[in-house]
Each structure stands twice: as C-alpha cells, then as structure tokens.
Amino acid sequence: MCRKMILFVLVLALACTNVVFGGMVVEVGIISGNDAVEEEPTGNMYMTSSDLEFLDDGGVQTIGLRFVNVGVPNGAKVIDAYIVFTVDETESPEAVNAIIEGELIPDAPTFVAIDYNVTERTRTTAQVAWNPPDWPTVGEKQQTSDISAVIIEIINQDGWASGNALAIIISDDPDNPSKSHRTAASGSGALAPLLHIEFTTKRAIAPDPADGAMYPDTWVNLVWVAGETATSHDVYFSDNFDDVDARAESAFQGNQGGTSFIVGFPGFPYPDGLVPGTTYYWCIDEIEADGTTKHEGKVWSFTVPPKTAYGSDPADGAESVEPDVKLSWTAGFGTVLHYVYFGENFDDVNNATGGVPMGLMTYTPGTLKLAKTYYWRVDEFDAVSTYKGDVWSFTIQGAVGSPDPSNGAVDVKHTPIITWSPGVFAASHQVYFGADEDAVKNADTGSPEYKGTGDLGSQSYEPGKLEWNATYYWRIDEANNVNPDSPWTGNVWSFTTANFLVVDDFESYNDLDPADPESNRIFNVWIDGYDNPTNGSLVGYDNPPFAEQTIVHGGNQSMPLYYDNSVGYSEATLTLTYPRDWTEKGVNTLTIWFRGNSDNAAETLYVALYGNAIVTNDNPDAAQITTWTQWNIDLQAFADQGVNLANVNTIALGLGNRNNPVAGGSGTMYFDDIRLYPPPEPTP
Question: Which CATH number fits the domain 205-303, given the four candidates 2.40.30.10, 2.60.40.10, 3.20.20.150, 3.40.228.10?
Fold first, then answer.
C-alpha cells in the first residue's frame, strides 16, 4: 500500500512533528489486485489483469478502482484530486475520451467476480471528462484530470468517515467514443494506481499518536493539524471515552493556541505518568476568532501497552492449528525476559512457576497431537518485577469444529439448530449448553448443562426457544473408546440471540441431496412457480450453491429470485413455523432487505401474508435498485386487511400485480434478513 499524508503550504518543525497552516494531502494506492478490475463489454469481470486498458481491449470496457483507508474526513474541502497511473505499454496516439465517476456509497465494497459488478453500481451525479494524451514512455507517471467534484460528492454523504473506502469508475465517453486506448500498470505496489487528494477542513485532523495506535511510553506529546479557521483549541483528555465524548468538565484540559499538548509528565496532566494497559481518549474542538464558533472534533484514542504479554499467535481459542506450530506474542511494556509455560491442562499451566528465562518472543513446543487442545502462558520480566500472563489456548487440527452459529455470532434466531463438524477420531459426542460460561466450561455429565450424548453422524442440537438478546454458551466433547487419547474436551463457543424476530436470514439453507435428512435446499422451503404455469418465479440457482453467496446483505447467504412476468406475476412463498406470532414482544414493523438489477424490468415489488393481504413497495422502480435497500412495513397495514398477526402462516415475496395479473418483464432480485422489530426503547 502506498499511503502517506503530506503537510503542505507552510510547514514548521516542532517536537519532531509537522504543523501546517493550509491543508493536507492524502495519497492512497491500490493494495489488492481485486481493487483494480476491468469489466468487459459482456459484463464479465476480469479480476487478475496485469494491466489496465483505457478503454479498449478487444471491446470497449469499464475500469473499476477501489481505494481503501482514505483518510479524508466527512465534509472536508477538497482543493485538488486526481489518480496517478504508471504507463505499462505504448499504444496508438489516437484520442481516448473517458468519463470518470465515483460509486455513490459511503464505504465502497470490494469488486467481485459477478457480471456487471462495476457498471451496476450506483454512480455519483458528478462526472469528469478525461482525455489522456499520448503515453509515449513506459514507466512514466500520468495523471487524470481534476476529479475533486467526484470526491466531494462521495465524502459529503451521510455515513462517510475518514478511513472508509471509495470506488472510482472510468468508462468510455458515449458522446465522443475513443479511437485508441492507454495502458497502465495494474495490481498493487509502487506501479499501482495512486489516488491523490488535497483538502482542508475546519476540524482538527491528523492526530499523533495515530487514532487507535499502541503507544509504548508513559508520557505523550499530543499533536494535531489545526482546522483552517481555528485560532484556538479546546483540549479534552481522559481514560474515559464517555467523558471525552460528552466534553465533560473532568476531561477538559483547557483552551490554547498551540497544536501540541503534553500529558503524563510532571507539571502536566497525569503527572505520575500514563498507566500501562490503559486506553486514553482525546479530542480537539476548534474555536474560531469570534470565540464562539466551534467545530467539534472526532474522539481519538491510543493505548499504552500492558506490562503483560499480549497479541498471542495463534490467537487465544484458535482452532485447526498446524501440529508444528511456532508460538509468538508481543512483549509487555518494558519487558527484558520472558517465561513460557505450556501444557495440556489449564490448571497446570495457570499454576506453573519456575520457568526458564528466554529473550526471544517465540516458542516451539514440538510436534503436537491432532485434535488436542493446548494451553500456554507467558510471564514478562522488566528487570524489576514479573508480570503473570493470561492463559491462552489453541486446538490442533482434527478436533470438533465449524460451529454454527459461529463462535461469537450475534443476532441469532431464537429457535436455532446448532451444528458442528466432528473431529477426526470421534465416535460419539456429548453436548453441553447453558447461559453461564463458567458452568458450561466446567460441566460434566452430572451437570444441568449436559444435554445428552449422540453418535457420529448426528452433529446437531436444538435448544428450543431462547430468550431475546441473550448470550448462550455451548461445548462439544468427543470420545472414542478405542483411542488412548480419548476423550477430547471441546472449546466453549458462544452466540447472542437477536433483539428482534428473525423470519428468515437465509443462513440455514444447504446443497445436500434431498435424500439426506439434513437436506435444506432453499427452493424446497421457499416455494416458487416451478410447477405452476401461472407463477413466473424461480428460487435459487440450477447448480450448487443454490443460495446466493456473494451478493448478500448480512451473513453468508441471500435468496436469489428470478421473475418472468410474461405469465402475469411471480412470487415465492414461505410457510412459517416460527415466528408465527407477530405480536411477540410488541413487534410492529416487518423489515425486508432487497436488491435488484439495473437491467431488470420495472415490476411492482410486493409482500403478501396469508396469500391475500398485500403491501406493495412505494417505489415503482424498486426492482431496478442496485444497492441493498431496507423496506420497512408497518404491521398495521396487514392487520387492516384482516390478518391475525398472532398466527401468521405464510409470507410471500413477489413482483407484479397479484390480484390483477398483467403480462410484464423479467429479472432477478435478491432478498435477505427478513425481520420483525419492536418499537424502539423510549429515550430517557
């Protein structure tokens, strides 16, 4: 990644930092090959090209460029912006006439290998003509025309924040087609496309230490770049985020004219020094000359490393670790020696003493057993004291794994079926489940958390209906009486249920053969028009994976729905098991996330309950929306049509006019995260 921030106009050196009056420059290079792509005329995405042709490569194509971690704040005043390319090949000098636009989204997603993934993105209203001259010399740098207008439209969106990603789209000018093309280097590194933005802002920017940094010292000189209209600065600093965010008096350190502030040194705030292992928060509000006009800054943070070891590799709780793993960690603050303890039992490792001191921050335990969980601890010595470390663990390949819901998952439905993959030596398993982490961790077959034993091949458990917004823990132990290493105690996994009802999140569908008792194909649950000549819908794909796994709103899957309204209308219907009571916890809003395609026919989007209570989307062009869109429906709209919300048996998603079918067009829609929400909690 080529990313640097250059202070310009007038630079003064103060305390090894740069203070500026005028503005900033941010330069961000492409860091992944998939962030510089070519969309061919057929819509095919060329993701691995070694160069970029502007814009003809056997047919006029469209270029997509995605730049990540763009350090320009929301609402900044952009002075100049352009993209720098490196000439890769020399071509005919005939004219190239391009249009440069941006994707109109606050944080641009990565490009994916789906047809038309560049051109189907919503674009900025702003567009800039670019007519690159002849590029006669390979290796030379060439830049676009000024694209400030495009950048301004992107960074002024609600939701844009410094550090977000933005995408630039370069296409041929339809009113003045190109006669030739220019060829630039692609990929990442020094030759990759580079986005250059010069800007000013009225807010303080460029914190040093950088926001979120690890800062290895007990005192700090805070430095920032002043807003363009600031004449003084209100400084807030604390180890409490809420106090800084609320501009509490306890966090206010005073108003000053300079753009640096010392903390953690005698005679300054926190005179006894900053505390290792503590995160500190600070912000700068910029005050204009009138003394009252204020521009509030973002709350920044940095952390003084702890005295104990941290940053374990493998990470604590890691699974499927290689048997010949080499352990490493980050040294605690001020550490000079390390003591490593390693074993197969938590208590033994936790209570161990008398280790051999070592200077390296790596440890090789030797070849380890498959499917086994190991524990390790690193104590740190700073020449004065020894600081006992946490006990970390990891599990070698071959153990029980692939928990579903995934470990730490949130917004899980209240009637989950939890599943896992068996270990390589397993013949049977024991299930432990409960709401207390320690109880699940320490449970045995005599504990209430024990839920039973199953044989290999039955890797699932249904805990029943769970509470809203509650965290649950579970563990799978495996056994094999003919293996001397048996039994194998599993890791404790967790998930948190949603604070809303999940009608369907499309995560449970699989591609298993219908003869398999675990089969759950999406088109066997959402019933489409496959066997109904009056219904033009088809759910899922012809070949696995049957659910959509790239164009998703949340999780890993969504539902693709093809519609062909030449027969009048198209819809797919889900018969509900849970939730059927759409009054539970006072829910009053049905939410559906959907996304269409610009090539879709503009058919009316609707949802139906009981097969006849219908609500249509207000946007007649909803099927042509190319970004994920949230559709909120007041449940009263169904109740007014006679629906018993306490016993809803079916929900259908469709396109067309169900009550008065009229021949229409076709297209493909995507649906995800169908939920029921209660009213928001009242604000205190």
Answer: 2.60.40.10
